[in-house]
UniProtKB/TrEMBL annotation, chain A:
Pfam families: BPD_transp_2. One of its GO terms (molecular function) is transmembrane transporter activity. This is Branched-chain amino acid ABC transporter permease. PANTHER family: AMINO ACID ABC TRANSPORTER PERMEASE PROTEIN, BRANCHED-CHAIN AMINO ACID TRANSPORT SYSTEM PERMEASE PROTEIN LIVH. The lineage of its organism: Bacteria, Pseudomonadati, Pseudomonadota, Alphaproteobacteria, Hyphomicrobiales.
From TrEMBL, chain B:
Pfam families: BPD_transp_2 (PF02653). The chain crosses the membrane at residues 23-42, 74-91, 97-119, 126-147, 174-191, 224-244, 250-267, 274-292, 298-316. It comes from Bradyrhizobium centrolobii. It is a multi-pass membrane protein. One of its GO terms (molecular function) is branched-chain amino acid transmembrane transporter activity. It is found in: Cell membrane. GO terms for cellular component: plasma membrane. It comes from the Bacteria. Keywords: Cell membrane, Membrane, Transmembrane, Transmembrane helix. This is Branched-chain amino acid ABC transporter substrate-binding protein.
From TrEMBL, chain C:
One of its GO terms (cellular component) is plasma membrane. One of its GO terms (molecular function) is ATP binding. Residues 10-257 form the ABC transporter domain. Involved in beta-(1-->2)glucan export. Transmembrane domains (TMD) form a pore in the inner membrane and the ATP-binding domain (NBD) is responsible for energy generation. This is ABC transporter ATP-binding protein. Pfam families: ABC_tran, BCA_ABC_TP_C. PROSITE patterns: ABC_TRANSPORTER_2. Keywords: ATP-binding, Nucleotide-binding, Transport. It comes from the Bacteria.
Length: 298, 326, 261
C-alpha cells in the first residue's frame, strides 16, 4: 500500500468513523445515564429503540398510519417514554436490592419488546430514511453529505442539551448527587425515584434518536437495532461505563476503530472485534480508556 | 448398571443436608428410575426431544452454577455450548474420533475458553462481565460462519459416529445425555461441600471476609467462570451428539439469553429436578409452540421478569399471612 | 513454645493515612507482641478501624512501614497477609447465609486444605479423609469457644453472640499467628460479652499475636495486658491498664466524651 493511497483512504475513513461514532456515543449516553443513577445495565435499551424506530416506520410509511415524519417521531417518542416509565416501574421494587436481578429483569423487558416488534411488524426488512434534502460537498479528501451534517448537528444539540440540564438545573444537580452517593441523597431528602425516572426517560429518548439516525445507513429489522447497541455498550465500556463524557468520546473512538478494522482487516468480524475491544479495555483500563484524561468518575 | 449406580450415588449426594430430605431423595431416585425406563414405552420423537432436553438442562445448569457460586449473570453461554458442540463435530471430521474422545476434550477446551474470557474482568463488578458476555453472544454467529473451513459455514457439520456401535441411535443419544446430566448433578452436590465450593460461596456472600481468609475475588471469579464454561461446553457436546448436527442456526444471539431464562425459571437450582425444569422450559416451549413463534420471546420475557421479581421481593412476604419470613 | 529471636510480632511504624484532604492517621506506631493481648481504644472517629484496616492490608498508608515476624508487609493485600498467618474478624458479622455454622468455620481452613479441583467434584478416599480432618478441626474450634452444639444451624437462626464467637472460631481454626478482632463485643449483651472475654483468654498462647479493637473500656481493661489509645488519628497513650487508667490525656478524652453524651 502506497503512502499516497493510505492518505487518500484514511481521511474518509476517519470522517465516517466519526459520524457513526457520534451515534454510538449517543446510544452509550443513554446506557450510562441509567447506570449512573440506578446501577442497572439496561439490556432493553436496544429493543426499546428498535420498537421506537418501527413505530416511526409504521406511522409514517402507511403500514399502520400515514402521518408526517415529524408527527410519527413525536408519537414514537411518547410511546418510548411510556414504555421506559413502565419498565422502570416494573423493576422499581428490586432496584435497590440487587443490581444483577434488576439487570436480568431488563433482559426480560427486552425480550417482551423484541417479541412485540416481531408480532406487529413481522420479520420484515424495511428502509427508514430521514426527511433531509439530499446534497453533499467535498472538503479536501472528505465527502460531507447532508446526512453527516444532520448527525453532527443532532449529536451536538443532544450533548449540549444534556450538559445544560445536568450542570444547570435542579434535576441535574440531583442526578449528579445521586450518582455519587445514593444513600446520602436519600438522607438529605432528595427523591431518588424522580432522578431514576429522569435518567430512564432520557435513556429512552437518546436510544430512539440514535436508532433513527443509524437506520438510514443500513436498514431496519427486528435485529439490526438491538445488535447496533453492542457498539453503544462497547462505547460505554471504553468510556468507563459511569462517565458521560467518556461515553461520548468512547463512541467516537469505537466508530473510528471499527471503520479502520473493517477496511484494513475484515468487515465480517465486527462483533468479534468489539468483543476484543471490550476484553482488552476491561483488562488494561478497567475504569475506561479516558480515566486519566478526564477522570473515570465524572 | 448405570441406573443403579446413579440411584445409589444420588442417595449419598444429598444426604449431607440432614434427615428431612429423605422424601426429596426418594423422589429424585424415582425420577431417575422413571426416566431410565421411559424408552421402553416412548417413541422416537419424544426420546429425541428428551435427549435435547437433558443436554439443555446441563447448559442451564452451567448458567445456574455461575449465578449460585459467582453471583454473576451471563447471556453469552451459548458461546461455550457452541464451542463444545463444534469441538465434537470437528474432532469427528478431522480425526475420525467419536465422543468417547471428544467429550472430555470439549470440556477441557471449554474450561480454557472460559478462563481466557473471564480473566480480563477478574477485578470488576459482575455487571461488566454481563456486558462482555453480550458481546460474546453477538460475536458467536459471525465466528461460526466466518471460520467456514473448520465449521462448515452456514451448512454446519454432521455428527454421525456412535459411541457404542450396534445400539440404536435414539437409545444412545437418550442414555448418554441422561447419564452425563445425572453425573454432573452428583458432582455438583459433592462440590457444594468441598473446600473450593465453600470458598466460592463465601467469596460471593462476604467478599471482604473471604479476602481476609485468603480467598481473593479474582480467584473466585475466574474459577467459577472456568468451571461453568466447562460444563456449558460439555452440554454443547451432548447437544451436538443428541441432534447429530451443528449449525449456526442453533446458536443465535437469543440462545444465550434463553439459557439464562431456563436458569431463572429453575430458580438457579443445581439439583437434577431443577435442571430438568429449566431444560424442559427452553426445549419444549419452542417445540410445542412452534406455530406461535413470535409469542415465545414474549413468554420468555414475562417469565424472566415475573420470576425475578417474585424471587427478589422477599420483603413482600412479610405482608402475607403465614409467610415464611420472620 | 518460645518466640524465635528477632521475631517481634506485628509492628507498625509511622503509619500515615489520608483520604483526599482528610488526615485519618498521623504518624502512628504500635507493636503487637506475641503472647500479649493488646487492646486498641479510642472514641468514635479516632481512626481505630482505619488503623486496623491498614494492619490487615485493606488500606495502604501513604507513609510508614509494617512488618510481621520480621517480614515486611508493605504492599500486601488482605489475602496475602492471610497467607502470612494474619486473620481478622469483622465489626459487621460476616457469615455466609447459605452455609451452616460449621461450614462457615470450615471456610477458615481454605488456605490449609490440600484437596485439588478433581476431588472437589469426584469423591476419593484421600479427599474424604481430608474432609473429615478439616471438619474435626473446625468442630474443635467451635467447641473451644463453647458453641459446638450450634454447629449444624444456619446463621440466620442464631443469636449475634454465637455468630460473633463463630467468627472468632473461623479466625482461630487455621491456627494463625496473629488474630485481629474488630469490635468483637459490638451488639453483645453482658452475658455474651463475659463468655467472649473468657474464650479469648482461654485461646491465648505464648506465640500468638492478639489485637482487640474496642470502644468498650471495661472489656479492654479486663482483657488486655497492653493498651494503645488513639484520638484524632494520633496515638496519645500506651501502657498497662493501670497506666492507661491514670493517664491524664486518656481521662480527658474519655471523661470529655462521657460528659458530652
Amino acid at each position: 500500500m502506497s503512502v499516497a493511497g493510505f492518505i487518500r483512504d484514511i481521511l474518509p475513513l476517519l470522517w465516517s468513523g466519526l459520524i457513526s461514532g457520534c451515534l454510538y456515543g449517543v446510544g452509550a449516553l443513554g446506557l450510562v445515564m441509567v447506570f449512573k443513577s440506578s446501577r442497572v445495565v439496561n439490556f432493553s435499551h436496544g429493543n426499546l429503540a428498535c420498537l421506537g424506530a418501527f413505530v416511526v416506520y409504521g406511522f409514517s410509511s402507511g403500514s399502520l398510519l400515514s402521518l408526517s415524519w415529524g408527527s410519527a417521531v413525536a408519537l414514537a417518542l411518547g410511546i418510548a417514554a411510556a414504555i421506559a416509565v413502565m419498565s422502570y416501574a416494573l423493576i422499581a421494587p428490586i432496584v435497590f436490592k440487587s443490581d444483577l436481578a434488576s439487570t436480568i429483569a431488563t433482559l426480560g423487558v427486552g425480550l417482551i419488546l423484541q417479541g412485540a416488534v416481531q408480532l406487529v411488524f413481522g420479520a420484515d426488512i424495511v428502509n427508514l430514511d430521514l426527511p433531509l434534502p439530499r446534497f453533499s460537498f467535498s472538503l479536501g479528501a472528505i465527502r460531507v453529505s447532508s446526512y453527516d451534517l444532520a448527525v453532527l448537528v443532532v449529536t451536538l444539540a443532544i450533548v449540549g442539551g444534556l450538559f445544560v440540564i445536568i450542570e444547570r438545573t435542579k434535576l441535574g444537580v440531583a442526578f449528579r448527587a445521586v450518582s455519587t452517593n445514593p444513600f446520602a441523597c436519600e438522607v438529605c431528602g432528595l427523591n431518588l425515584r424522580s432522578v431514576h425516572l429522569f435518567s430512564w426517560l432520557a435513556g429512552a429518548v437518546l436510544g430512539l434518536v440514535a436508532a433513527l439516525l443509524i437506520v438510514p445507513t443500513t436498514f431496519l429489522s427486528s435485529t439490526t437495532v438491538p445488535s447496533f447497541m453492542l457498539q453503544a455498550f462497547t462505547a460505554a465500556v471504553v468510556g468507563g461505563f459511569s462517565s458521560l463524557p467518556g461515553a461520548a468520546v468512547g463512541g467516537v473512538l469505537v466508530g473510528i476503530a471499527m471503520n479502520l478494522f473493517s477496511f484494513y482487516v475484515s468487515p465480517e468480524f465486527m462483533n468479534t472485534f468489539l468483543l476484543g475491544v471490550i476484553l482488552l479495555t476491561l483488562n488494561f483500563f478497567p475504569n475506561g480508556l479516558l480515566e486519566r484524561a478526564i477522570g473515570g468518575r465524572v | 448398571m448405570a441406573v443403579s449406580d446413579l440411584a445409589h450415588a444420588s442417595k449419598t449426594g444429598v444426604s449431607a443436608r440432614g434427615g428431612h430430605v429423605d422424601i426429596a431423595r426418594l423422589s429424585v431416585l424415582a425420577l431417575v428410575v422413571a426416566l431410565s425406563l421411559l424408552p421402553l414405552l416412548a417413541g422416537g420423537f419424544l426420546l429425541y426431544s428428551l435427549s435435547l432436553c437433558f443436554a439443555n438442562a446441563l447448559a442451564v445448569l452451567s448458567v445456574s452454577m455461575l449465578v449460585r457460586y459467582g453471583g454473576e449473570v451471563s447471556i453469552g453461554h451459548s458461546f461455550f455450548v457452541a464451542f463444545g458442540a463444534y469441538a465434537v463435530a470437528i474432532v469427528e471430521h478431522r480425526l475420525g474420533l467419536s465422543i468417547a474422545a471428544s467429550l472430555p476434550l470439549a470440556t477441557l477446551l471449554g474450561a480454557a475458553a472460559g478462563f481466557v474470557f473471564a480473566f480480563p474482568s477478574r477485578r470488576l463488578s459482575g455487571i461488566y462481565l454481563a456486558v462482555a458476555t453480550m458481546a460474546l453472544a453477538l460475536a458467536l454467529p459471525e465466528i461460526l460462519i466466518g471460520f467456514e473451513k473448520f465449521t462448515g459455514g452456514f451448512e454446519g457439520l454432521y455428527i454421525a459416529q456412535d459411541l457404542i456401535p450396534g445400539i440404536p441411535k435414539a437409545l444412545q443419544r437418550y442414555y448418554v445425555a441422561l447419564a452425563v446430566l445425572g453425573l454432573v448433578c452428583l458432582a455438583l452436590a459433592h462440590f457444594r461441600r468441598s473446600a473450593q465450593g465453600l470458598a466460592l460461596l463465601m467469596a460471593q456472600a462476604q467478599p471482604r471476609a473471604a479476602e481476609a481468609i485468603g480467598i481473593t475475588r479474582s480467584w473466585a471469579r475466574v474459577s467459577i467462570f472456568t468451571l461453568s464454561a466447562a460444563v456449558a461446553a460439555l452440554a454443547g457436546a451432548l447437544t451436538g451428539f443428541a441432534s447429530s448436527t451443528v449449525s449456526p442456526n442453533s446458536f443465535t444471539f437469543f440462545s444465550g439469553v434463553f439459557l439464562l431464562v431456563g436458569s431463572v425459571v429453575s430458580l438457579n437450582g443445581l439439583s437434577l429436578p431443577a435442571a430438568l425444569v429449566g431444560g424442559a422450559f427452553i426445549t419444549l416451549v419452542p417445540t410445542y409452540l412452534a406455530q406461535a413463534g413470535d409469542w415465545v420471546p414474549i413468554l420468555y420475557g414475562v417469565a424472566l421478569v415475573v420470576v425475578t421479581l417474585v424471587a427478589n421481593a422477599g420483603d413482600l412476604r412479610r405482608f402475607l399471612p403465614r409467610g415464611r419470613g420472620r | 513454645m518460645t518466640v524465635p529471636a528477632g521475631s517481634n510480632g506485628l509492628v507498625a511504624e509511622g503509619i500515615s493515612l489520608a483520604f483526599g484532604g482528610l488526615q485519618v492517621l498521623n504518624d502512628v506506631s504500635m507493636t503487637l507482641r506475641p503472647g500479649v493481648i493488646t487492646g486498641l481504644i479510642g472514641p468514635n472517629g479516632a481512626g481505630k478501624t482505619s488503623l486496623f484496616n491498614c494492619l490487615t492490608g485493606l488500606y495502604h498508608g501513604q507513609r510508614g512501614r509494617s512488618s510481621f515476624a520480621g517480614t515486611p508487609l508493605n504492599g500486601l493485600g488482605p489475602a496475602q497477609r492471610a497467607a502470612c498467618g494474619i486473620t481478622r474478624s469483622f465489626q459487621n458479622l460476616a457469615m455466609c447465609p447459605d452455609l451452616s455454622l460449621l461450614e462457615n468455620v470450615l471456610v477458615g481452613l481454605t488456605l490449609k486444605r490440600r484437596s485439588g479441583w478433581f476431588s472437589a467434584f469426584v469423591p476419593t478416599p484421600a479427599q474424604r479423609a481430608e474432609q473429615r480432618d478439616a471438619e474435626r478441626r473446625a468442630m474443635a474450634a467451635l467447641n473451644e469457644l463453647g458453641i459446638g452444639s450450634a454447629a449444624h444451624e444456619k446463621p440466620s437462626d442464631l443469636p449475634p453472640g454465637t455468630l460473633r464467637l463463630a467468627e472468632i472460631a473461623r479466625a482461630i481454626t487455621s491456627e494463625p499467628t496473629a488474630i485481629l478482632l474488630d469490635e468483637p463485643a459490638a451488639g453483645l449483651n453482658a452475658v455474651e460479652t463475659r463468655d467472649l472475654t473468657r474464650a479469648l483468654k482461654r485461646l491465648m498462647r505464648s506465640d500468638l499475636v492478639l489485637l482487640v479493637v474496642e470502644h468498650d473500656m471495661d472489656l479492654i481493661m479486663e482483657l488486655c495486658e497492653h493498651i494503645y489509645v488513639l484520638n484524632f488519628g494520633s496515638m496519645i497513650a500506651s501502657g498497662t491498664p493501670a497506666e492507661i487508667r491514670a493517664h491524664p490525656d486518656v481521662i480527658r478524652v474519655y471523661l470529655g466524651d462521657d460528659a458530652d453524651a
